[in-house]
């Protein structure tokens, strides 16, 4: 976990955007204002730290059935990305914020749906109980950090989107396909750690 912590932007200096993929998104979206959002990359403490991920329910309007980090749109009352990530994690998976130790941030990431996401990286206490909110989350699962750090588990491919060729990455673990924005943010973590 020390190598991971050392790779992060410090809590005292949260990133402000634009996202590290801003040029790509500007090609697709133009210079429209991105809406602020935040997600929690929470690693459950233990002998093998494990990243907590969710599967979104099939009936959601956007990204239905996809693997995602707990998180979402920032509300004016939140004040900052850390508060957004903790509030959303509480709402989506019942994570008690007193069992979360924030470690730092990754670089902001812009999505095709027009958000600029601030990824918050944190430790989650081993005893934390997680319960999916049935209206948003179909399942909560965990992936060992060691799996994500193994180069053979990072798959690269190209996808055509609106006439553009886009370089993509994905991980497949225990029957779950981790791709899209979630995989891209994990790639940013690996790059910051010098592992990709």
TrEMBL record:
InterPro entries reported in the protein's UniProt record: CoAse, NUDIX_hydrolase-like_dom_sf, NUDIX_hydrolase_dom
Necessary cofactors: Mn(2+); Mg(2+)
RNA-binding among keywords: no
Domain of life: Bacteria
Every Nudix hydrolase domain range: 33-165
Pfam families per record: NUDIX
Keywords recorded for this protein, A-Z: Hydrolase, Magnesium, Manganese, Metal-binding
The keyword Transferase is assigned to this record: no
Protein name: Nudix hydrolase domain-containing protein
Protein's organism: Rhodanobacter panaciterrae
Classification lineage: Bacteria, Pseudomonadati, Pseudomonadota, Gammaproteobacteria, Lysobacterales
């Amino acid at each position: 976990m020390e190598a991971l912590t050392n790779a992060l932007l410090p809590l005292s200096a949260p990133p402000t955007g634009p996202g590290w993929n801003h040029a790509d998104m500007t090609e697709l979206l133009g210079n429209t204002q991105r809406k602020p959002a935040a997600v929690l990359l929470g690693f459950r403490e233990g002998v093998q730290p494990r990243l907590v991920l969710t599967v979104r329910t099939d009936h959601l309007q956007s990204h239905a059935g996809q693997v995602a980090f707990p998180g979402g749109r920032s509300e004016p009352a939140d004040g900052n990305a850390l508060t957004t990530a903790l509030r959303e994690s509480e709402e989506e998976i019942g994570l008690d914020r007193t069992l979360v130790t924030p470690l730092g941030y990754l670089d902001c990431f812009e999505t095709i749906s027009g958000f600029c996401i601030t990824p918050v990286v944190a430790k989650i206490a081993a005893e934390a109980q997680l319960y999916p909110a049935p209206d948003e989350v179909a399942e909560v699962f965990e992936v060992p950090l060691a799996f994500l750090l193994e180069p053979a588990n990072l798959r690269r491919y190209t996808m055509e989107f609106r006439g553009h060729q886009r370089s993509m990455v994905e991980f497949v673990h225990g029957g779950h396909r981790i791709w899209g924005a979630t995989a891209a943010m994990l790639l940013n973590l690996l790059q910051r750690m010098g592992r990709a």
